Amino acid sequence: MTFKIVTFGCKVNSYESEYIKEQMEKEGFTYDEEKPSIIIVNTCSVTNVADKKSLKAIRSIIKNNPDSILVVCGCSVEHNKETYRKLDLDVLIGNRDKSSLVKQIKLYIKNKKKVTKLYEGRESTFENMSVTKFNDRTRAFVKIQDGCDNFCTYCIIPYVRGAVRSKDFSESVEEIKKLVSMGHQEIVFTGIDTGSYGRGANYDLVDLIQEISKINELKRIRISSIEITSINERFIEEIKNNPKVCGHLHVSLQSGASRILKLMNRKYTKEEYFDKISKIREARPDINLTTDVIVGFPSETEEDFKECIDFCRKCSFSKIHVFPYSKREGTAAAKMKDQIDNSIKKQRARELIKIDEELQLNYNKQFVNKIVNVLVEESSTKNSIGHTENYLKVIIPKTLKENSCYNVLITKANIDSVEGKIVKRD
């Protein structure tokens, strides 16, 4: 039988979908985008828009693929259990049991009886998954953590992903060794709250970084995102002294206004945030620091917004992902007074995006006339595209070998990329 997977949302979902794909193929199913007899949808619920996209796609699949077996899982299911129960789905699960999804599909095929496995409560064990290869040979994602205990007032994720839990240390190392042996030169740690890896155990994220750094063929270790509260002196020392750790950190801010940070239930002050990123920059001067900012949070005033803008400039981020506040039913912020009008949210988002573009260009200009090392990921007859260890997107007007490193002299800076020419093969 043939199948395809439709994935919405974050890198964790992408990793889980890759795992499901591998397991399906091991059981003899064939991946086919054009004529799938089984369609698996891995949903997202990070915003209202994400929920709507997932539901719209599923309803369209039901309408246009009446003979296909429809399998749905993920965060949107967890957040909207009753809505999904009412749809005509053959296999329905939330975020638990993804590791046994293929088993559920085979059970449905055998018995022709619909399968629904949904649970209440946040407690769960880490579902062990292991991926052996990715289509992108250069970069491989490894899910080392799941769940969140932060309960920011705007966020539904702690409710749909459950409590913090981690992949076993030895199993994490073994998976990474296998991926490197398949040719992947860069490993990207993924998780819902990656910095909490090992919480409650006798190891942590730095221990894992140090252990996999011993793998000679592994050139880069990338951390997809980390909370400022997870960054301590030991972590900063590691990124300072370990050349395999990429000089790029995505550290969510969410607001640069002190009053709004408190309302969001973020676990730090902006002064504490700035102190940490200053220490990071002292350790790695060229580090690429990116962030998320929500505008239009309930009761956010023009003064709060200006305070946020000023703080973003002070932090000199190299990229700001700007999100207008999205009201999420089931969160504390949804019940707050003084909800902001959508037109004001959009206007503030536009203003911050302009500042983001200015900051991106300023960061990229620092590398003009400098030589950087680029791991090429895509190549065509016109040009090659890759990233530096600090996640500069580099465009080179030459056909180059993919999954190979080159030294490149940067000649031009754009807002979202830089351009350069080969100096010498690494």
Strand and helix map with partners:
Layout: E1 2-7, H1 11-26, E2 30-31, E3 38-43, H2 48-64, E4 69-74, H3 75-79, H4 81-85, E5 91-93, H5 101-111, E6 115-117, E7 139-143, E8 145-146, H6 157-161, E9 165-166, H7 169-181, E10 186-190, H8 205-212, E11 220-223, H9 233-241, E12 248-250, H10 258-263, H11 270-283, E13 288-295, H12 302-315, E14 319-324, H13 342-365, E15 371-379, E16 384-387, E17 393-396, E18 405-413, E19 418-425
Parallel strand pairs: 1-2, 1-3, 3-4, 4-5, 5-6, 7-10, 10-11, 12-13, 13-14, 17-19
Antiparallel strand pairs: 8-9, 15-16, 15-18, 16-17, 18-19
Characterize the structure shown.
The protein has 426 residues and is an alpha/beta fold. It has four domains: 2-117, Methylthiotransferase, N-terminal domain (Rossmann fold), CATH 3.40.50; 130-246, Transcription Regulator spoIIAA, CATH 3.30.750.210; 250-366, Transcription Regulator spoIIAA (2-Layer Sandwich), CATH 3.30.750.200; 371-425, Nucleic acid-binding proteins (OB fold (Dihydrolipoamide Acetyltransferase, E2P), Beta Barrel), CATH 2.40.50. It has 13 helices and 19 strands. The chain has helices spanning 11-26, 48-64, 75-79, 81-85, 101-111, 157-161, 169-181, 205-212, 233-241, 258-263, 270-283, 302-315, 342-365; strands at 2-7, 30-31, 38-43, 69-74, 91-93, 115-117, 139-143, 145-146, 165-166, 186-190, 220-223, 248-250, 288-295, 319-324, 371-379, 384-387, 393-396, 405-413, 418-425. Helix 2 (48-64) links the parallel strand 3 and strand 4. The N and C termini lie far apart (45 Å). The model has no long low-confidence stretch (mean pLDDT 95).
